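Supplementary Methods. Inverse-folding protocol.

Structures were first reduced to a discrete structure-token string of length 304. This string, shown here, constituted the complete conditioning input.
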């Protein structure tokens, strides 16, 4: 996971990445670099994912804005015994697909399927990107029967991170601690396309020190929607304003979710409203990797 030249808003991306890389050395079983990617080997202890080659689809926003989520995902998968592979990759093609640009979406899909062809599974720390891989790739090739079959087989093995841990590997608990009161937002794609709802709550219930309180209208959109927030700013702001009011009403000091885009949207609104609620990706909490500041918080400083 490397920066493509974009710097994160509100915190030092390079420092964030360097700290995460140093932390990763302490737990990651890096065996060797290979052309096009990194192979991380599982622990010797027999685990639910033992022997399974899992390709990590990093996602654009994790790569550019919150690389610590990627490292947390690797840790969770390794803890389950998986061999984690991170091949060279780009966007999943969702922006092109949602904008009606099927030609470029198909080109990206072909590239992605080729990159992960040696993996048993493909896992993304995002319901939005995982939903694109698992639900929309097959329909892109309706007019190409052979590729349609290949895309369908590929899609069957694509999963959102927490759903994969619980539903496929049968993980029932994590070894992590987080002292605080958290509430959880169910992102639209993960919930509606992939059925991700109970899985994150089941694992969060095993985090020591964490109290989880339910969010009113937890299944209602936060107003991000990718390009929606850029095209319809006023409408997006109205939606996220209701969301942050509900978040504040829980009394929680931490907001969790499974998509960085949604988290950045809500974190930005909470900060503009002057609310001191920490915002984190669920993978960071489940992996016990919360040393870095919450999303949107500056490194080594305080909010303006």
């Amino acid at each position: 996971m490397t920066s493509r030249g974009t710097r994160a808003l509100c915190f030092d991306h390079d420092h964030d990445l360097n700290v995460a890389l140093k932390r990763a050395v302490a737990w990651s079983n890096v065996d060797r670099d290979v052309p096009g990617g990194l192979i991380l080997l599982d622990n010797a202890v027999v685990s639910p994912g033992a022997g399974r080659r899992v390709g990590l689809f990093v996602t654009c926003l994790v790569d550019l804005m919150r690389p610590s989520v990627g490292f947390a995902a690797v840790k969770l998968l390794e803890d389950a015994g998986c061999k984690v592979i991170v091949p060279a990759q780009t966007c999943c093609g969702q922006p092109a697909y949602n904008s009606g640009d099927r030609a470029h979406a198909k080109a990206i899909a072909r590239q992605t399927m080729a990159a992960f062809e040696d993996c048993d599974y493909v896992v993304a720390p995002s319901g939005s990107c995982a939903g694109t891989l698992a639900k929309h790739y097959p329909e892109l090739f309706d007019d190409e029967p052979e590729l349609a079959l290949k895309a369908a087989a590929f899609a069957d093995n694509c999963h959102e991170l927490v759903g994969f841990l619980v539903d496929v590997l049968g993980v029932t608990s994590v070894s992590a601690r987080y002292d605080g009161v958290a509430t959880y937002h169910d992102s639209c794609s993960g919930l509606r396309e992939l059925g991700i709802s109970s899985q994150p709550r089941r694992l969060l219930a095993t985090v020591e020190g964490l109290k989880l309180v339910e969010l009113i209208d937890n299944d209602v959109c936060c107003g991000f929607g990718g390009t929606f927030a850029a095209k319809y700013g006023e409408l997006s702001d109205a939606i996220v304003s209701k969301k942050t009011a509900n978040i504040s009403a829980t009394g929680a000091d931490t907001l969790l979710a499974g998509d960085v885009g949604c988290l950045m949207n809500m974190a930005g609104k909470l900060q503009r409203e002057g609310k001191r609620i920490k915002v984190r990706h669920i993978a960071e909490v489940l992996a016990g990797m919360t040393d870095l500041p919450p999303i949107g918080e500056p490194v080594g400083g305080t909010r303006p």
